[in-house]
Fold these 4 entries.
Entry 1:
Amino acid sequence: MTVNEPAQATPAAEEIPVPTAPPLPPEPPLVPEPPLPPQPPLSPAPSRKDRRRLRAALRWAAAVAVFAVAGSGTAYGVSLLDRTDVPGLATHSDGRWDYPTLVKPPLPAGSPGPNDDARNETGAHYADLRKLVLPAPRGATVDPALKGTDGWLPTKTFLQEFAHVADRTEVGQKLTDSGLRHVAARGWTTPDGTHTRVYLLQFDTAAIAQHTFDTDFTSYDAPKYPVRGGDAYEPDQDFPVAAQLDRVHTAPIRETKPYGAEEVREAYLAAGDTVALVVQSRKGSALAVPFEQTVTLQGELLS
């Protein structure tokens, strides 16, 4: 017989402690959202009448802008035009004369101009000198005494421009010694009573013409030989520099005060092989603007 041994007691299972989760942090207090700014009340939809007014205002604003641009453009354009190009602005308003359009005569085929230094060392004017004399302005009466024969003026007629007989003889001899070739001239009287005489004297070379200009006709403070109509002369210090041309030597001269019955203005020019003399006289006073205009235009024809 088997003796059963008493059963041994089984030890109880050991309990493993379960870690507990840390407590959650407290939730932040809720911050209320800022209130929205008050909205302006909605404008009522513009009525049909208001829309018409708005469109009309916009159209007027556009029209004003267009007129402003057009006006400024017109003013700019007028500022670029010559007085003769603007309707209603006649040249006589500032004292200028109405000269015809100046056109230089054509040169013979292959001939250079007077300022072509490379091909024209003598400075010769190969164009017909008679066609280089300034034409009379419109409305003027041409002086038949200066027409000459076939457009060439006798030297003795030119010499009558000088006031003193002894001067005429001396100038005539100098011109002969310098080999004067031709004299072309033109004279006229305008309705305001201004008498203009223009003389062109042609020599063999520019060097001779320049010598005649420098030593025979002009000096530092006065012309060598006074022209008729005045007693004493001086350089015209008021003659504008803008009226003088490159390659054209200009010596403007005016009568000193007191004037006699008329005032005399004159100018000598040297361009290439030619010396020019422009004389204007007028009872009372010889106006500066037409004198300057005449001298400049004659210089342009010779340049």
Entry 2:
Amino acid sequence: MPERTFAGRPTTVVIGASAAGLFAAAALAEFTDVTLIDRDTMPQGPEPRRGVPQAHHAHLVWGGGVAAVNNLLPGLVDEAVASGARLVPIMGGMVSRAPTEVWFRRYTSTHHRNLVCSRPLFDHVLRERVLRDPQVHLLQNTTALGLEGDAAAVTGVRVKNGAGESVLRADLVVDASGRGSRAPDWLKELGLPAAEVREVDAGVAYATRRFKAPGRTSGMQFPLINVQANPAKPPGRGGIILPVENGRWIVTLSGTRGGEPSGAADSFIDFALGLGDPMIGELLKEAEPDGGVVTSRSTANRRHYFERMPRWPDGFVVLGDAIAGYNPVYGHGLTVAAQCAVAARDVLRSAGLTAHGTAMRVQRAAARPVGAAWDLAVGQDALYPGATDTPPTLVQRLLARYVDSCVKTGAANYRALGALLDVMSMERSPARLFSMDMLWPMLVGRKQELLAGPPLRDDERDAVVSGPK
């Protein structure tokens, strides 16, 4: 099939103006005029909105996502930091217990940094930057109804807004509408077969509450506190304290089937005290709540294998959470969204946007960061009872044991921790866990004794209980 012809610069419609859509628009503006559509009215500042209900919970951008953001939008990370975000060294700026109940040492020798702030702040900084591009135009209060075209090629999208229903013609349509994507239905309407789907659902429920940072902690680089659930001891319960802008802590607690947190304010701290380690609950005793409890249960890992479809229409691409949504406890959604956009841009730099097969090339490229995050998430969640109809195979169980060994080694050796964080931060592929940086310390290298408890420093504990100075 020859390249489709068009008059002037190609046009793209991106469905969804959340992070994945904004990253996609930034990537595509290099090649095409972009119209972003979203059913919401965008807030004027760093405020939550209806279309991002998960914004109340803890979010971060892993190191691989930070690199992708800097690649795609140079200077954006600095803009976020100037607005109140932090670049936190991992593990130096973190107190973290692994799912195996091993505490990580706070080594400062690794290069890994996570971008930490509230989700509304990140979205605001990202939205302001992307919409400054004259090649990007936003249509608010506009809902996508379906695709125009056929099984061979998508030519536009049907939309509805205050002016009624209409068709936005486009050389490329990108679905970045998140977990609620209707792409599978739309493809079926075009006469295409259903994509393979897999779901791994550990039954995780979340409860989040904001607190005023206690004592003197808002005036220091207080560490992230993370107690991860242990799948070997169901129900798995975990929690995170995320110090963010404006002297606030976002505290998210989680539990799998039979151990879910409730939305009751008076039981929030009690649940935190009942985690595998009570540290989060103990710290919260000194903190003043700043609002009520927000809960969520939309946490299943669900992946559409669009890249495996035998036929795929030209002119249509699915990115971000619309391909796969993950258990939010792993915090990979924003990182994958940025990496998907970079992957799309890199394909388009070597292939014509309107050329036959380009859309499928983009879809396959986006599957790589999606697959990396998927393997990290389901490697843990598949171990919970009832999480999947297909229990882990012998090979998967052996790999899970090997990863546990990598975690234990990383907790006792800074060289191995660097290799482990390369993978966990989505900076390198899982093959990194089989490098000599991991294997040598694991088998014969020098290792320190494992920590008996959380490595929270005395000055950090004192800052929590001390009044302002």
Entry 3:
Amino acid sequence: MLRFLVRRLIGVVAILLVVSGITFYLFFAASGADDVVRLSCGRNCTPEMREVVRQNLGLDKPLIEQFWIFISGIFTGRTIGDKACDAPCLGYSFANNENVFDKLSDRFPVTLSLAIGAILLCTTIGIGMGVLAALKRGKTTDKVTTGVALLSGSAPIYVLGPLFIYVFVQQLGWLDRPTDPPSFFGDPGGWASALLLPWICLMTIHMAMYCRLTRSTMVDVLSEDYVRTLKAKGLSGRSVYIKHAFRGALSPIVTVLGVDIGVLMSGTIITESTFSLHGIGMLAVTSVVDSDLPMMMGVVMVAATFTMLANLAVDMAYAAIDPRVRLS
């Protein structure tokens, strides 16, 4: 297991280096020095500020040296002009006079809170509905469950969000209007109340995938010879369905879960914009609007990191579910 984990970690580091190189090239080399200065300086930029930005970014140096300074700054920190940027240094936003990593760290708790609740609700309810539909295959319960899942996954978040706000907040008063949550450790109730409506919206949309995928894989596994053999040997239904059949159906579910975790942890742009939540997704939008190139690049790097970490978690889950994966 340790060798398997080490191999995957090496692969993650290698891919992140490639992604960082491509990102750096797209943002700095492909755009040209003038465009880089213009975008890094922000919308309200004077000629004097542009010259300062040009010098601070070191655009007069060879491209490979610029990339090395950027990469080494992530691990050791660096100095950008007269501003110290401690490790991990992802750059400095000249448009807003902010350290990119500090800004991302400030926005990360909102995105993390949104992701945790949405993932728990999606998996619990979606997988539960899928297992129920598989066990009641062809019956009314199966048809109702799959129908509800199909209907719930048809509405986009920018339609479902305002609709839920109007119904559950303004008309019925059952839920609080979504806001940036307080600290979970300081106020768990307020933390959950602030994000309950976005969680429900994301659950409503994403549970369809988990329900349908769980049902289809469970139906396939339940038709396998080894499941029929276990039933013939007299094992209880709970043991056959949960311990054996459900475990065999987990691999594709874990794959989808890993993708969703990476997307949610990277910042759900539409969801955060719909509910006015100041997370990483909203930061990505404002950085584009403000022409803040260092912040855009920081968001891309963070998104790539969380996507790779989610894939690493999927690989580890595969190894735990199916020991044969460790030997491949």
Entry 4:
Amino acid sequence: MGTTGKRGRGRAGDAYRRVIGLTGPLLPCVSFLGRLPTATIQFGSVLLVARTDGSLATAGLTGGALALGQVVCGPLVGRLADRHGQRTVVLAFSLANAVAVAALVAGALARLPAAALAPLGAAAGATVPLVGPLARARLVALARRSGASEATVGAALSFESTLDELSFVLGPALVGLAAVLAHPACAMAAAAALVATCGTAFALHPTARATAPAHRAPGRPVAPAEERPAPDAPARVPDPPDASAHARVRAGGAGRGAVPPMRAPVEAGAADALLPAPGNPGALRVRPPMPRCVPGLLAALALQGAMFGACQAGITAFTGRLGQADQAGLVYAAMGVMSAAAGLATAAVPERVGAGTRWRLATGAALVLSLPLLATRDLSGLYAVVTVLGVAYAPHLITVFGLLERAVPPSRLAETMGVAASALVGGQALAVAVTGRLAESHGPAAAFAAASTAAGLAFVLALAVRPTTYAGEPGNAPHARVADTRPR
């Protein structure tokens, strides 16, 4: 058992070293700090307006408008990044978001009415630069272009999901700390400064070239893409020995941050590239369609968000009934820390356990581990149950993001990651609104029952949806969907 554990930790360590080798150490730091404001402004806007206006209704309206702006415009940000490249889009939205957040802070301090604060909140949400989803798309593009194995791609997704978890644990904690020690406006102002500086640094990092749009002259042949394995199939392409993309690039004289040459144009992860239509080299085809499995995967993410939102509402109501409402943030943090740890450990799972199997295991675990919430009676029991439940959260996200990455055309990867982020945020926001009322009327158990119901529906989806993989074919065929025919 000890030898197996050491071997698993060794696999995970090697995988993460290869992931860092693709980017260098600076990009993960910048992307983490760049996504921290997204986790800060949602909670911070509610605290800020509640402090300055004194009305929880106005605070909720402003926070809801912010979430709605992000849900509606998130896919647009991803699509623009696919079409124009991440550098231009992230730079523009980072600066716009800094201005919008600063305007919201100024409006709240000026005690503007709800009719003015709601549009300011919507603008702050609509301009979120989606550093997290775009960092995920960028890292996957770098891994694909370097010829990395499926294990390295999976480790990249695990790494990015862990950074997301840490940001969503740390962000609200920092806002709460600022509200106690100073004023929520301080946290919001810091978020504006952080998104302006670190969002800009993320946009200008040399690896942004990995997702630059590919432009081809009409009639130019399209190089075939490497075929991707089915979701349940083990990786067939080994990692180059000793090999980070940076090591190979530096050997050729390039500096840190340089991007290795593309092996196949459609694997760039860049966007709405102009592809010659089959049989007519002069005609151009854009925006290949999404596979039919994608809505099911997005629905799974929305249900995951709904589960987390329902747990939030239930935890808040539970701690409030015990007269220890200040413990709610610590309970969330315990779940987030455990989820982040489980996400990092996902890279140690053997490759023979395919993505489809992992999806079913993660959703089944979420369902089973959520049921004890219904019988929880004291704070120590709540800590224990919620902490263990965190084990299922990040692995589910990592697996579904991996299935989406394999399913969608590379030219629509950033758009898909944006839609996925919107599905998560939308599911969580809707669940918080609905189950918050349930918890007030019928107690925390009603919210926890809604969380278990969402987990059960996600498990049903995992059993019913049959993910496909995207693969380019020789010649001018823009894409093909390959069924996962591995026995279930």
